[in-house]
Amino acid sequence: MSIFEIFGLLFLLYLIKDFISKNRNISQNPKVRGPLSLPLLGSLWTLGKLPHEDFSRLSKRYGNIMSFYMGDTYTLVITSPDMLREIFVKNFDSFVERTRSPIFKKVTDNYRNFISGDESYWRPFKAMLASSFTKQTLKNHVTKSIDDQTQQLVDVMKSFAETLEPFAPKKFLERYTFNIITKYVMDEQIPYDQEEMTNSPLVKLFDHFSVILQQLGSANLADFVNVLKPFYEYYLFHSDQPYDHITKLLREKTEETMKTYKPNVTRHLMDHCIAELGTESEHAKRSVTNITVDLLVAGAETSNGTLQWCLLMLANHPNYQENCYQEVYEIGKDKLLILNSDRTATPFTQAFIKEVMRVHPIAPLGLPRRAKEDIWVQDVFIPKDTQIIQNIRSLLQSEQYWDDPLTFKPERFLSGMQSQHFVPFGVGPRMCIGMTLATEEIYTAIANIILNFKISPLNGIDKIDESEVFGLTIHPNDFQVKLEKRKNKLF
Ligand code: HEM
């Protein structure tokens, strides 16, 4: 037998063993079922271009707690709200950490960041950042910049309404959410003005973010198959990656900020972190850089995508847009700007935004976690290192928890009846830290857009395409709308 034949035979035996052990593991857990697992690929063969839709389809077939091999990573896909709370709230300590893969190792600086950091990083960072995202802190430090950005956004949109030029929202909404978070984190903004936009150093950062989000969103087999992982990891750590440019730019910014830092003067969130971590150590420099990257990555794209969906749904549902307009007009007719403090006086507009987030949740599978140890939860055995996926989109559209779930019906939120299953930001101590900020920036932009403009599909188009593009966040295909200035506003 030649060396190649021996190698081939060993590989075949490995595939057979892999096939048997994966499917035995699935069948040994009687409370959970899942699709057949193939050698190496695991159950990935069941996923297409829109994995969140596939998980919805599969969980209807296999149940609210579904087992699924992502390559070699044993995974539980959770659609049951009770089980989500058992795992992420009651047993939080056992599921505090996120999943591991070569790409995450690379973009998290070896799990030393906040979003995907190991427990030893996450806990102190969370303690340091929690107070920066409370309602009161945001009111003191962010609300004004949200109002400024909203005014600038509305002004840009007015120029489109005046010329009746089609308005492509993506670029401007990106700028809106990016500016709000960069202003808060490092007191910088990209001007809306086209010329200046291309010259701003922050634009480089912004461009790198789009690439990195694409990279993170597109699943790579090498992230999940054990034999491929070391090669992929080597490639990621020994080649020029978009992430390296972001870290380099923000590391420079961190060092520059540390040089001008004065104790007792907090200019922005970076200063707040520097006050806690110091200016000297490598740990401090690394941590401030990593946290800054995290907040910019997580803070801009998510709210931007949600805003895009809101505009699209306003254009596609003129009756609901009119209901929102009547409501915001009463509040905003004699004001320059509708404010976040007006939110409770506009319940329908709030319900509209929630319904957009239910039908098009921007993070339909949340951010995966990992079991730290073997544990039993509600009669289900969860082995150490199991990956846990929150099947948020499926839960938000399940007939078990919502009436008529596939119909877009904002009024469902007016009674508050079904709100306990509304979990687009995740649940438990590691849920989205930016929820209050996101809610405020989305509301302020949308309420003022509705007050100032009638939004419709372009002439000749009945409805804008609502199909979803899968990535780190789920966004619509690029689209344009027609803007008409509302005439009856006093200012
Ligand atoms: C519509 C907007 C947003 C949605 C739907 C959203 C959703 C989510 C979800 C589902 C998670 C995972 C939670 C979990 O593991 O249980 C998350 C985590 C996170 N989000 Fe958001 N997010 C949004 C906006 C923001 C904004 C504006 C920020 C800015 C600060 C932000 C910062 C973060 C961070 C830092 C984490 C990681 C939290 C941790 O690991 O402790 N998000 N988000």
From TrEMBL:
Keywords recorded for this protein, A-Z: Heme, Iron, Membrane, Metal-binding, Monooxygenase, Oxidoreductase, Signal, Transmembrane, Transmembrane helix
Membrane topology: Single-pass membrane protein
Localisation: Membrane
Signal peptide: 1-21
Annotated heme binding sites: C432
PANTHER family to which the protein is assigned, alphabetical: CYTOCHROME P450 307A1-RELATED, HEME-BINDING MONOOXYGENASE FAMILY
Protein name listed in UniProt: Cytochrome P450 family protein
